[in-house]
Specification:
With about 425 residues, this protein is an alpha/beta fold. The protein is built from 19 helices and 14 strands. α4 crosses α10.
Length: about 425
C-alpha cells in the first residue's frame, strides 16, 4: 500500500497503545488480544493439523459483532454443505471477539493483527487460506494486497457504500486500489453498485443483506420461555423494548406508567447496576428484574427488566409491538430481530443511515418518532385499533421474508 496509508496505520496503532497504557478498557483488550498473536495462531493451526494434516481454510473476517451476524449465515451454510472445509473467524474489535470467542461454528477464532505489511505476510504464511470473506466495511489494504499477491480470492459480502466514503471523494484515488483487490463485491443495494460502477469497479452483484437470513434463522431456532408466556397471558397488549437508552426510557416509561392496560418487557442496551436503577426509579408500577426472576410471581408484575444478555432476539416473539432503542443518540439497534416475528417496530429519529429501518418505514411495518407526543400517538393507534396493529405487523414480517436469500445467492456464486 502507499506511504500515506502505512503512516495512517502506524499512527492508529500508536494511538491504541497510548490509550491502553492509560487504562482505556477497549484499547487494553485490543492490545492483550493481539499479544503474541502469531505464536498463538501458529499453535492453534498446529493443533488443527494434528487431526487434518492439510486443512482447506476458509477465512471470514468481521469487524465486530454486528458484522459477524451478517457473515454467520454463510459460515453455517458452508459448515453444513462442505464440512471438509475448516473455518477461521477473525475479529478486529473486542466487542465482537469477546462475545463470540467460543462460537462453535468456527474451528479457530482470533483477533486480526494490525494491518502492517509484515504482520499481513506472517498471518497468511501461518493460515494459508483458500478463500477469504470480508464483511460489510472491512478494507485492510496491506492484508488485501498480500492476499492478491498470492492469488487468494477475497470477497466482500453484505457491502454497502455511501457517497461520504473516501473512495468517492476527489482525493479517493489514494484508497480506490483497495477495491480492485476483491475478486467480487456482493452489495446490499443498487445505490452501492452504482457508486462502485462510477469509479470503474464493475465486479459487483446486488444480492441484499445477509442479516435478513440471519434473523429468519434466529426466529426458527428461538427459545420459548415459560415465564414470558405466563407474563404474556396476563395482558392483551405487550410492548417489548430492546436496546433502550436513557432518552428512550424517558419516553417509554412515562407512557407505560400512565397506561395500566399494557405491560412491558424492557431490555436496556447497558445492564450495569446504575442504569438498571435509573429505570427502576422511573417505574410507578410493579416490576421484576430477570436476574431475580420468580416464575411463580411473574403474573403479578407489570414490567420485567431484562438485566442479562442473550435473550432479546427470542423475547420479541412475546410482544405485540417492539420499540428499538438508540434512535435519540448513537443510532438505532437491530430492527430486524423484532420485525421477523410479524410485529410493528417503533424507533427514534436517528435512523437514516439504516437501510432496513428505511425499508420498514417504506413498507408500513416501521414507525419513527421524534418525541413523546409522537410515541403516544402511535401507541394509541396500536392499542385501540387491532386491525391497524395486525396490518403493520404483517407488513413488517413480509419485509423480512421478501428481502431474504442473500446468503444463498453468495454461496451459489462462490462455491457452486
Amino acid at each position: 500500500m502507499n506511504l500515506l496509508y502505512n503512516i495512517a496505520i502506524d499512527t492508529y496503532v500508536r494511538g491504541i497503545k497510548i490509550a491502553a497504557s492509560v487504562g482505556k478498557q477497549k484499547a487494553m483488550q485490543m492490545e492483550m488480544g493481539r499479544d503474541q498473536w502469531a505464536e498463538v495462531l501458529a499453535e492453534k493451526m498446529a493443533e488443527l493439523r494434528k487431526f487434518c494434516p492439510n486443512p482447506r481454510i476458509i477465512w471470514f473476517h468481521a469487524a465486530s459483532l454486528g458484522e459477524f451476524e451478517q457473515g454467520r449465515p454463510l459460515i453455517e451454510q458452508l459448515r453444513e454443505k462442505y464440512p471438509e472445509y475448516k473455518i477461521l473467524l477473525t475479529f478486529f474489535s473486542p466487542s465482537g471477539y469477546e462475545v463470540r470467542k467460543n462460537y462453535k461454528g468456527a474451528d479457530i477464532i482470533c483477533y486480526l493483527p494490525y494491518d502492517k505489511k509484515s504482520e499481513a505476510m506472517k498471518f497468511i504464511d501461518i493460515v494459508k487460506p483458500e478463500k477469504v470473506f470480508f464483511v460489510k466495511y472491512e478494507f485492510w489494504g496491506n492484508m488485501l494486497e498480500e492476499l492478491n499477491r498470492r492469488n487468494i480470492p477475497v470477497y466482500l459480502i453484505s457491502g454497502i457504500f455511501r457517497e461520504k466514503q473516501v473512495f468517492f471523494k476527489w482525493y479517493g484515488g489514494v484508497m480506490r486500489p483497495v477495491l480492485h483487490m476483491f475478486q467480487h463485491l456482493f452489495v446490499q443495494d443498487e445505490k452501492s453498485k452504482a457508486l462502485l460502477n462510477s469509479i470503474n469497479i464493475n465486479n459487483v452483484t446486488v444480492c441484499g443483506d445477509t442479516r435478513f437470513d440471519r434473523v429468519l434463522s434466529i426466529q426458527q431456532q428461538a427459545k420459548q420461555y415459560q415465564w414470558a408466556a405466563d407474563f404474556r397471558s396476563t395482558s392483551d397488549f405487550i410492548l417489548v423494548a430492546g436496546s433502550s437508552w436513557p432518552k428512550d426510557e424517558e419516553i417509554l416509561l412515562e407512557h407505560f406508567n400512565a397506561h395500566p392496560e399494557m405491560k412491558l418487557i424492557i431490555a436496556p442496551h447497558e445492564i450495569h447496576e446504575e442504569h438498571v436503577q435509573s429505570i427502576i426509579a422511573r417505574l410507578k408500577r410493579p416490576f421484576m428484574r430477570y436476574s431475580q426472576l420468580d416464575e411463580s410471581k411473574v403474573k403479578n408484575v407489570d414490567c420485567i427488566i431484562i438485566d442479562a444478555i442473550g435473550f432479546l432476539s427470542s423475547i420479541y416473539r412475546y410482544g405485540d409491538v417492539a420499540y428499538i432503542g438508540g434512535g435519540f443518540g448513537v443510532g438505532i439497534h437491530n430492527t430486524l430481530e423484532a420485525a421477523v416475528y410479524g410485529i410493528p417496530v417503533i424507533f427514534g429519529p436517528n435512523h437514516q443511515a439504516f437501510r432496513e429501518a428505511l425499508g420498514l418505514l417504506a413498507e408500513g411495518g416501521g414507525f419513527t418518532i421524534g418525541d413523546a407526543v409522537g410515541y403516544d400517538a402511535i401507541m394509541k393507534t396500536f392499542m385501540t385499533d387491532s386491525k391497524a396493529l395486525k396490518e403493520a405487523g404483517t407488513k413488517a414480517g413480509a419485509y423480512v421474508k421478501d428481502n431474504s436469500g442473500a446468503s444463498d445467492a453468495i454461496f451459489s456464486a462462490v462455491f457452486n
